[in-house]
Design brief:
By secondary structure, this protein is of the alpha/beta class. It has one domain. It contains 6 helices and 5 strands, in the order ββαβαβαβααα. A 5-stranded mixed sheet has the order 1-2-3-4-5.
Length: 142
């Protein structure tokens, strides 16, 4: 990435569509689970983010809480899940501040992201200081 983008915080990944072209190449921290229904919002959005962090939501039956990570891999988007015991589900800011990565897909692994990494540290590597410039992704923000 030549220009650094501020990370985008989305309590619900369903709001990715409100970002329009501003999501292209960004780092998104979502409070949503990383399941199929959540990942579909990213897959269906025409402007690909660089990385999306989800809450693993306790993983669940048949790995439902992280089942969307392979979907993101299929479209070339790095996908990570952070542990539900490290940050609250539905609160992206808590995921950024306290999240600890529990699962990654292939593109994330290729970037050097691995289980045990702090979400905030990985976001800072890509975006600079995450706390200083994070956008909430609300429709009223650019």
């Amino acid at each position: 990435m030549s220009a650094r983008h501020a990370p985008v915080l989305l309590d619900s990944i369903a709001l990715v569509s409100t970002l329009g072209e501003h999501s292209a190449g960004t780092v998104i921290v979502s409070g949503s689970h990383g399941g199929v229904s959540a990942a579909s919002f990213v897959v269906d959005h025409p402007h690909r983010p660089l990385i999306v962090f989800f809450n693993d939501a306790g993983i669940g039956k048949d790995d439902a809480g992280i089942a969307g990570l392979p979907m993101l891999e299929a479209i070339g988007v790095a996908g990570c899940a952070y542990s539900h015991v490290s940050a609250r589900i539905g609160e992206a800011a808590d995921g950024l501040a306290n999240g600890v990565v529990s699962h990654v897909n292939g593109p994330a692994r290729a970037m050097g992201i691995q289980a045990g990494d702090r979400v905030g540290a990985r976001v800072a590597e890509r975006c600079g200081s995450p706390a200083a410039a994070a956008r909430t992704g609300r429709p009223d923000e650019p």
